[in-house]
Design brief:
The complex is a heterotrimer of chains A (about 250), B (about 500) and C (about 100).
Chain A lengths: L29 E6 L5 H9 L3 E5 L6 E9 L2 E7 L11 H13 L3 E7 L3 H14 L3 E6 L1 H6 L2 E3 L1 H8 L3 E3 L8 H13 L13 H18 L5 H10 L2 H13 L1
Parallel strand pairs in A: 1-4, 1-5, 5-6, 6-8
Antiparallel strand pairs in A: 2-3, 3-4
Helix pairs in contact in A: 7-8
Chain B lengths: L6 H12 L3 E2 L2 E2 H20 E3 L14 H8 L3 H9 L4 H45 L4 H39 L2 H14 L6 H10 L1 H7 L6 H10 L9 H11 L9 H31 L10 E3 L8 H36 L18 H15 L4 H9 L7 H9 L11 H10 L4 H13 L4 H11 L2 H32 L2
Chain C lengths: L16 E5 L9 E6 L3 H9 L7 E7 L6 E5 L2 E5 L1 H4 L2 E6 L2
Antiparallel strand pairs in C: 1-6, 2-3, 2-6, 3-4, 4-5
The chains are: A alpha/beta (about 250), B mainly alpha (about 500), C mainly beta (about 100).
């Protein structure tokens, strides 16, 4: 992991309140599943976990949480299905949950399920996830439907432009899912190290972010992505301070 | 420095220092979201190509790509949307879809229901023979076979076929993407009622199960509008009540049980459809009432995505609708039906004047059930029903499915559920106990509008965390049901009196 | 007009440019977001859905009861009520 926005020290124990349920206690890698609503995210989740699912609520929230176990080639992964959201900018309980999980529970990889028929809106979320963690794998779902609508997506070009692996899939037919799991495992094991190409903001924003990030360094201890936290402070997000405070005190 | 106590304060200070930044006169947050989207757009345009033949291959930087590809030829789903959201046709199509859904359920469930009934009650007779052969005491046979088993058999025979038809069909519509169109079509009504447009989505879920509908209310962010949706969800008849509505509509308005004609099925469907529409009207009225009184406030943001239609996967639908929904609801109903059947058998067989004696000996007379029923009789008659039906509704609080079986158990003098093999014999029992079309109508209206079942109330308590709102969710619908039934029954009496 | 359809940004003077709010754009015409006069959560929601400055938006259909209207934005279709759409400033080219 060479990118400046790396989250350091992957050996840190995950923070308690967001731990990936009982399934994760045995040291299995944890993989988050993010995506816009209506992208076939739950189809991917069901296809990967089958009946090995555990359903509950996110702590203190009336938002359903689904965890599942994905077994492939003798390896076991804990899959955490995050609420479907359009962004991670904390405009709703769902978005705060999805953001906090990626940010504080630090999954070993995050799959972002993307609807190939509606790439622009979906890539917006991919970029936001990649701003928090580099360990992103894009599942380019519904490529059959896109083709029917006359859209062909160049997956290698997409992977190059995003700087993260992209796996084309038709989740409902099970197409591409083996490749998806293999790619996720490669990222989890560190064989593939995604280096996301992040959007650069206006000069004023970036210099200020760098300054704040430097000031945050001794405090965040490498636990969180400094640039990302700095950007949230700059945009005036009130929920991020609260989330950090809760995590620190509980953990 | 990294003291957890002082850190939030430090972060707040950092944030305050950063505040007020504007980029080209734009709020910094807008700038950031805009930058993200511009980048997303850039990448998306660079990586998407027109699929078929004539495409130039390389990236033609179309300035408004959303426009060019879609305007030329309309895709099938946008043509379908033109129809399903058209001014008149959209609404008619909605009614049509709902009507077809009910009709298929009603017609399709009739024969399997009869078959299942014959099978299960036949099995019950075999059980009885077994008990006799073993010289089991009468009360044990009564409690287990006549009470528990027969209630169970009734619930399975009456509920399973309609659910096994309705749930897959409904899941099909859901997976196809039709429900957001319903919300789109009806939003205006809900806005005027002071409610949220997504309430029609939560109502749709209520057709399956009101508890599920209440949970679905989570999609509504505004607490005020969420409460409105939760409290009014019971006005959508769930699968526990549908069989009752369908059976009564078929018998008293469809002429079924007399002669199974298609015309009768259509008439029965029309009655069920009218009841559902009445439920929707009451939902809007009560929502308006709540929004104007205890839940006053400004309407919240309404943003609804209309996702593309998706061809559903039959296998997945069957698995999800049969396992997650049908069997889930049926198991819950069965678990309640068995003990409730035992309880009602005891109530119907223990005579008040003879409590010390061996139960099972009471013949007619003053059984607990008949005493309760006669106490409730004046109120029942006032509401166009009778004491036994009202007792059925009260004892049916745990699950709406068992209201009719309990009522029937009360009617039969032996205090056990009659062998109801299909609708013809059901009609016979009801008519023999003085039922008319008006009785059936009042029972259907009361079933549609009364308090939610125990599971739903529990869910409401869990979702709201408030006893107050749970109580309101029970009392308000009951008040509506009582008012409507009293008005219908009273009106009918007046008409009869005026034109004898 | 005989002009071939071209990028709104590229041809300033070809056709009359109409500045209005999104709720007043005729069905089927492509508009461009020029400003958002909304505040708070609604503003943030709309930004998240792609109603950002410079984004292309097209009203595609209206509800049978007149409100809300469905808009095509960022390749997806999103329905907004009139009151909300009125807070989105746009410009479009009259045809």
């Amino acid at each position: 992991m060479l990118d400046a926005s790396t989250i350091a020290s992957p050996g840190m124990p995950p923070v308690k309140p967001l731990q990936a349920s009982r399934l994760a206690l045995s040291g299995r890698p944890v993989v988050a599943l993010a995506g816009n609503p209506n992208t076939g995210k739950s189809t991917v989740f069901n296809a990967l976990t089958g009946l090995r699912q555990h359903t509950g609520n996110w702590p203190g929230k009336t938002v359903a949480r689904h965890d599942g176990l994905c077994v492939s080639a003798g390896r076991e992964l804990v899959l955490v299905d995050l609420p479907g959201t359009y962004s991670l900018l904390a405009n709703s309980a769902e978005e705060v949950i999805a953001r906090d999980f990626i940010c504080f529970a630090r999954p070993d990889a995050t799959i972002v399920v993307v609807d190939a028929t509606c790439l622009r809106r979906n890539l917006n979320l991919v970029l936001q996830v990649a701003e928090i963690t580099p360990r992103v794998v894009v599942c380019l779902n519904l490529i059959d439907e896109a083709r029917r609508k006359g859209i062909e997506i160049d997956a290698p070009a997409l992977a190059r432009d995003l700087g993260v692996p992209v796996v084309p899939a038709v989740a409902r037919d099970g197409l591409g899912l083996d490749q998806l799991v293999a790619t996720v495992l490669a990222v989890v094991d560190g064989q593939v190290v995604p280096q996301p190409v992040l959007p650069r903001y206006a000069h004023d924003v970036e210099t200020r972010a760098a300054r704040i990030a430097a000031a945050l360094e001794p405090m965040l201890d490498g636990r969180l992505n400094r640039r990302w936290v700095a950007l949230r402070l700059i945009e005036g997000d009130p929920t991020i301070i609260q989330s950090i405070a809760e995590q620190r005190i509980d953990g | 420095m990294a003291d957890p106590k002082t850190m939030p304060a430090y972060l707040v200070r950092l944030q305050a220092d950063a505040s007020g930044l504007t980029i080209d006169g734009q709020d910094v947050r807008d700038h950031m979201v805009g930058t993200l989207y511009r980048r997303a757009e850039q990448i998306a345009d660079a990586c998407s190509h027109a699929a078929a033949g004539a495409a130039s291959g390389a990236t033609a930087p179309a300035p408004a790509p959303a426009a060019s590809s879609r305007l030329r030829r309309k895709s099938w789903d946008s043509r379908l949307d033109d129809l399903l959201t058209a001014p008149l046709w959209g609404l008619l199509a909605m009614l049509g879809v709902l009507g077809v859904l009910f009709w298929l359920t009603l017609v399709g469930a009739n024969y399997p229901s009869r078959l299942l009934g014959r099978l299960l009650f036949g099995l019950g007779d075999a059980l009885s023979a077994l008990f006799r052969a073993a010289h089991a005491p009468d009360w044990l046979h009564g409690l287990l076979v006549l009470g528990m088993y027969r209630s169970l058999a009734w619930v399975v025979a009456v509920m399973l076929p309609p659910m096994a038809i309705f749930f897959p069909l409904f899941t099909l519509l859901e997976d196809f993407g039709y429900l957001p169109r319903v919300a789109f079509n009806l939003d205006s009504l809900f806005r005027r009622a002071g409610a949220h447009g997504k309430q029609s989505l939560t109502m749709s879920m209520g057709f399956g199960c009101n508890a599920a509908g209440v949970i679905a209310c989570r999609v509504i962010d505004s607490p005020r509008e969420r409460l409105i949706a939760i409290v009014t969800n019971t006005f959508v008849p769930c699968n526990g009540r549908f069989p009752t509505l369908i059976a009564l509509a078929s018998i008293f308005f469809g002429g079924m049980g007399v002669a199974g004609a298609t015309r009768g099925a259509i008439a029965a469907t029309a009655v069920v459809l009218a009841l559902v529409l009445a439920g929707i009207a009451v939902t809007l009225l009560v929502s308006r009432l709540l929004a104007g009184t205890v839940l006053r406030g400004i309407p919240s943001v309404f943003v609804l995505e209309l996702p593309p239609y998706r061809l559903p996967q039959p296998g997945r639908i069957l698995v999800r609708s049969i396992f997650d929904r049908t069997l889930f609801v049926l198991t819950r109903a069965a678990m309640i039906a068995a003990p409730a059947g035992a309880l009602v058998w005891i109530m119907a067989n223990v005579s008040i004047s003879n409590t010390a004696g061996i139960p099972g000996g009471a013949v007619g007379g003053d059984t607990i059930l008949s005493v309760v029923a006669s106490l409730l009789a004046p109120l029942g008659r006032f509401l166009g029903m009778d004491g036994y039906v009202l007792t059925g509704f009260l004892l049916g609080l745990p699950a709406n499915e068992i209201v009719l079986p309990i009522t029937l158990m009360g009617y039969t003098s032996a205090g056990t559920l009659t062998e109801v093999e299909g609708l013809a014999s059901l009609r016979g029992v009801l008519v023999a106990n003085g039922w008319t079309s008006l009785t059936a109508l009042c029972v259907m209206l009361f079933s549609l509008l009364h308090f939610p079942c125990g599971t739903t109330l529990l869910t409401i308590y869990r979702e709201t965390g408030s006893r107050k709102w749970t109580a309101l969710a029970a009392l308000l619908p009951t008040a509506v049901a009582v008012t409507v039934c009293a008005l219908v029954a009273g009106g009918a009496r007046l008409i009869v009196a005026a034109f004898p | 007009m005989s002009q071939p359809s071209s990028a709104p940004a590229a041809s300033h003077q070809d056709r009359p440019q109409v500045r209005t709010t999104l709720d007043r754009v005729p069905l089927g015409l492509l508009a461009r977001v020029t400003d958002l006069s909304l505040e708070g959560l609604l503003r943030r929601r709309l930004l998240d859905l792609g109603f950002v400055l410079g984004a292309h938006v097209r009203p595609v259909r209206r509800s049978p009861l007149g409100d809300p209207t469905a808009y095509e934005v960022m390749g997806a279709v999103v329905a907004l009520r009139r009151t909300e759409a009125a807070g989105i400033g746009v410009s479009y080219r009259d045809s």
